[in-house]
């Protein structure tokens, strides 16, 4: 009798474990992607977004790039809510020289020039604010792409926000 009861308990426990094995995290499927704080689109089909990546951190994502050799990005941020930005170059551009400037309050600049054109989608860089409050993130000012034929594509984001 005890053996039968033990076998039933083990069978129930094993069945429960098996049922839960492929259940996932209980989130009901894929979680929604974070809403960008700003996005820009270019006439050549490329686009860029500032994607929240944790409190005060934003990824600069590029997509639809085709033979891009260089990029110039101006990012605006409200000094009342954000300060002390630091820019890190991502891994999308390889064999490239980059320059960043965060010396003017409210404006961060990043320029990248590569020796090999890039195509596709990737992380151009990230910007991190040491001091951050509120919910509104940084925005794009002017953004310019240059392709392998030295054609330039420029656009503007939302610009400075209160």
Automatic annotation (TrEMBL):
**What name goes with this protein?**
Lipoprotein
UniProt keyword terms in alphabetical order: Signal
Q: Which organism is it from?
A: Geomonas limicola
Q: Which residues form the signal peptide?
A: 1-19
Query: What Gene3D superfamilies does UniProt report for this protein, alphabetically?
Result: 2.60.40.680
